[in-house]
Every structure is written in C-alpha cells, then in structure tokens.
Amino acid sequence: MTRRPIRLAVDIGGTFVDAMELDTRTNRVRFRKAATTPARPADGVLNAITALGTDLSEVELFIHGTTLGLNAVLERRGGRTGIITNEGFRDIFLIGRGNVPSDHMYDFQYQRPESLVQRRFTAGVRGRLDYRGRVVEPLDPDSVREAARTLVVDQQVTSIAICFLHSFLDPSHEREAARLIHEEFPEVSLSLSTDIVREYREYERTSTTVLEAYIRPIFERYVDELEAGLAERGFAGRFLIMRSGGGSMTSAVAKTAPTHTVLSGPAGGIVGAAYVASELGRDNVLTFDIGGTSLDACVIERGNPVAAYEAQLEHFPLLIPTYDIRTIGAGGGSIAWLDHGLLKVGPQSAGADPGPVCYGRGGTKPTVTDAAVVLGYMDPDRFLAGTMGLRDAEARAAIAEQLAEPLGLTVENAAAGVFDVLLARTVGAVRQITVERGHDPRQFALLAFGGAGPLLAPLLAREMGIGEVIVPFAPSGFSAWGMLSADIVNDFSRTVMATLDDADLAELEQLFKAVEAEAVASLVAQGVPAGEAVLERQFELRYLGQEHSLMVTVGRELDRDAVRAAFDETHRARYGHTMGNPLQILNLRVRGIGRTDRPELETLPRGDGDPSQALLTHRDAYDFGQHAVVPFAVYDRARLEPGDTFDGPALIDEGTSTTVVPSGQRVTVDDHGYLLVTLEEAA
C-alpha cells in the first residue's frame, strides 16, 4: 500500500484555529487560519482544513491540540458527575487542602469557586485498605450497588469518579466497584483513579479523577463528532491528540484520558521550541507564546523543557505530567479597562465572538489588538494576508472614549499604555520561571510565537536584557507546526515512599520493569512496534522532611551514589545549595516514547545582505525606543533572504503576524529564514 504523503496539525486557540500541512515528499508546509467556533468547536477545525484546501484522503497523520477540556471546567459545561469513595470519606474532594490562592492571601472574604461536585452527588461504600495496601474490610458489593443507584437513579449523574483510600497500592477494590456498577448501569461513564494515576495523596488523586469524569462525556462527544466529520471528507489515516506534557496519543486513548489534553495546545509550541532550540544550537530558551486569550511562557533548560507533575485547573489540582508553563490572561483579545482610574489589561478577553472592536463583529471593548492597530503595527488591509479587513477607525474611537479621554491622554499614548501594562504583567510571569528559579534571563534566547508573540517579544527582551529574540516562520501557527514533530508518549508512575539508603534496589528494579511493561503495552496499542519503544526512567526525590521534590533521570543500572549526585546537582542549580539529609524516593516514573519523523528545518540560499527587495513601504507607528510616533520601514517577510540585516524601527509583516522592532534593535535573517532580533550594540 502506498504511504499517504501529507501530515496535518490543527490547534484550537481562543480566537483562531490554526491548520498546518506538511508534505513529506518536499518538506514544505502550508498554513491557514479560521475563526474559533466556541459553540461547536469541531466546526472551526473543519473550517480551517477547508481553508487550507487539504485533500484528506492524502493525509497519513492528523494531530490535534485542543483546550476543550480546560474550557469545560472553566465554563462549567462538563458532565453531571458523582463520586464513590470509602464510607466516612465522602468529603475529601469538598474539603480539599483549605489553602488560599496567593493572589487572595489577604482577602478575608475570599470564597473558593463553586465545586464541580455537590455533596449530594457523593457516596461512601463499605470496604477499606490500609496504608500498606492490605485489606482491612472487604469491599461490600451491596453497598456499591446502593451507592450507584442513589447517584444514577436519584441524582441523575452521568459520570462517576471512583477513588478509594490507598488504592494506588492495590487497585482491585476500584476495579471490582467499576465492574459492579457497569453491570447495572452500562451507560454511565466511569473513571477510576488507579487507571489515571497510581500515586499517593488522596485529595489530589480524587481531584484528578473527578476532573477526568467531569470532562470525559463532552470530550468523547467532541472527538466522535470530529472523527465523523474527517471521515466524511475522506480521512482514513491516524488521528492523534497532543498531551499536556508533550508527545501525543491516539484519539481512542485520549477519550479515556481527556485530562491529559487540557494544556495540549501550548504543549505543541513547546515541543516545537525544543526541536528548534536543538537545531539552532541554543541550549537555553524561553518560549513566549501569545495568542488571542492568554500568554504562555516556559523554560527550555539544557535542551529540555522544564516539566511538572501537577497542574492546576482553577483551584483543582491535577496529577498529570505537564510542562511547567506560566500562563496569564493577556493575549491579543485581552480587554483593556479602567479600575478606579488605573489602566488594566485582562484577564477578561473578547475571545472569538465578538472579538476585538476592529474585527467589526459587535465587540465594543478595546483590546490589545485594537491598541496595536492604533499604534500603527497592523495594516488593516493586510490582516490575515488580506482575507479579513480591520476597522481602524472603530478601534481608535473605542480607545479614545473608554481609555484616552478618562485618563486625559492622547489616543496613541493610551494605546501605548495598554502595551506598557501588558509588558509589566509579562515581565512578572517570565520572572516567575527564571529569576525565582535561579535562572538569569539574560542567558536565554527568547523564542516568540503565537499571533501576538512577535509583537511584544522585542520589547520584553529590551526590558529584561535578553540578548536575542528568535521569530520562526509562521509564528501564529508555530504550535501546530510543533505538533508535527511530537512523538507518541505515555507516562506511568508508582509511589515508593522509601529513603534512597534503605530502599531495596532489586525491588525497585522489578517495579521499574513492571511499569515499563505497562508503558510498552500502551505504545503497542497505539501502533508503535515494541522493539522501537524508548523508555525513560525517573525518580521523584526530596530531602527527608521537606515538602517539595525534584525529578532525577536514572540509568538502566540503579546506583545510589549516582542518583544522589544527580539530585544534589539539580538542587544546587535550582536553590543554590545542597544538604546532607537522607533522600526520600516519593515516586518512580517511566515515560514510554514512540519516535516520529520530524519536519526538517530547510536551509535556504543566502542573499546579498540587502533587504531593500523586501521593503514594502514606510508607515508611521509608535516607537517605544523613542516614545513617539515615527516612520517605520515595513518589510515583507516572504521576500527577506538569509543574510539580510537591518535596524529598527521596523515592521516585518507576514500576513498572519507582525514582528515589531523598535529603534535600538537589529534584525538578522538566519540560514533557515528565522528572524534574529538583537540589541544594536550586541549585534
């Protein structure tokens, strides 16, 4: 059978859907955007594919990043969910940890958001394991059936989370409870904590299982609807969905583990950024992704994105592997507003509907995009390569009426103030993942992508002393491009809770092998040959008596001294010191990887160094280097060649995004056509 030559990636953002096509015969990519359709998200995906004009019968691989699960929690659109746990512990999820978010630390009237599960939707059953996984009380089948009837018949729940105490040591009680419930109510969706995460901490494990149960019904419907729509258009290839912690999984696996997709869109950009960092020879990179509704930043340190094994959805903990991303509600659609005379930006967003004022779709509140239009950064006639005109007069009027006049400023100064506020919030987010983690941001390159990333990145670099900004081709679709290089991945873990000195290495080796067998089986089920599975081992460690832990990669041969040395090195790099305390192993982890072919970065022929052939015009715009409106040179990025160099103030327009280079900074086009923005004296 002839292999299909096309690979297709689609990423849903808050405002636009990005579709990227890779032709493996020529290594060429094509990119198109379509508006996000919040009411029917699958329609936006199919519209983007239609705009791209891809023949789906030629597509071998379709890979997708979506925030559907995240939005279901934020907008409270999930399934009616119940909880079955041990008798006497039905309030674990409702009580939680009792902690207050840091931004509400001194708010004595703070109230947590409404829970996803009301108390009447929780039930306790008889049966109990102790802290070593031994049976204290056998599971009572009648108690399980009664609890299920109460939840399903009386309370009309459609999805049930099953989470028992200490079940991570022995999942048999959870599996038996699921069997009993399925016999009586086969139509009810069941989520078992031990199928999702085999780790200690009852509240966090319960929260993860509840989120899984809450998201699953709508996620399954969405994937089924999208699969049907693709099939109608001739698609018969593999359908993969991005994971929050990098890599991908088949759509069938994703429907059983939707929590792993909640940050899948940003993850695509980080996967691509790690690949680009490796190809360009940059060990330390900061990713800087600004879309329509949010700004996401992540550290790539020594070639690897910094990972975390606990995420947050609102105040709900989620025990899944994810990239350590800092997200703030600040994107192109973020609304600028006044709070008692103070200018603020976000976190509210105009989204895709109605969108910024300049879109002309009924939006009335000024946004970052409207400010960019007023400042002259965006050509109203060339937006989205000329397929969508912008109404600059309406954007100017909204900023004048709602911001400039109340503040006593000119329209341009009010719009510049929007960027100043956004920049201040951005600096805070970047400092959280650099300075507060012992990193000097001046030793990193800044990789800018997302529709608005190149708009702000040079300003951020100047503000923080970052020496280089890298702008890839089609930055607004970079997350989709990154998905094309994603491996098939699955993560597995077991709680150990033993000191490194006292742990039996032979027992740990046997546990690693058992978990590796699960990882290989998962990859084989997703089409990866067993002999091609790559397995990575890690320990989650901490000094005995501490709360916070660090991840350490371990080799095939377990060596206490090597593990200790690796942990001390990581701890010194993160916190600046080491301690003599014994090390405690919390969890062992195995990541199973099925490698995929990555799109190559094409090396382009060098030009003569003269960018004049790409010069379109000059346009007045606001220069933050001079704090005034001055003429900017406007370049067509498609006509720039490797070796071209020019100074700001300049605008590089590529239809779907614009790179804004203030005075005092220089642009060089590298051998791959990427833009490198540096300070003039550094250049």
From TrEMBL:
Q: Which PANTHER family match?
A: 5-OXOPROLINASE RELATED (PTHR11365), HYPOTHETICAL 5-OXOPROLINASE (EUROFUNG)-RELATED (PTHR11365:SF23)
Q: Which Pfam families match?
A: Hydant_A_C, Hydant_A_N, Hydantoinase_A
Q: GO molecular function, one example?
A: 5-oxoprolinase (ATP-hydrolyzing) activity
Taxonomically, the superkingdom here is Bacteria
Which residue ranges does the record assign to the Hydantoinase A/oxoprolinase domain? 205-490
UniProt domain Acetophenone carboxylase-like C-terminal: residue ranges: 506-673
Domain Hydantoinase/oxoprolinase N-terminal, by residue range, is: 7-184
A Gene Ontology cellular-component term: cytosol
According to its UniProt entry, this protein's organism is Micromonospora tulbaghiae
Record's protein name: Hydantoinase/oxoprolinase family protein
Instruction: State any GO BP term from the record.
Output: glutathione metabolic process
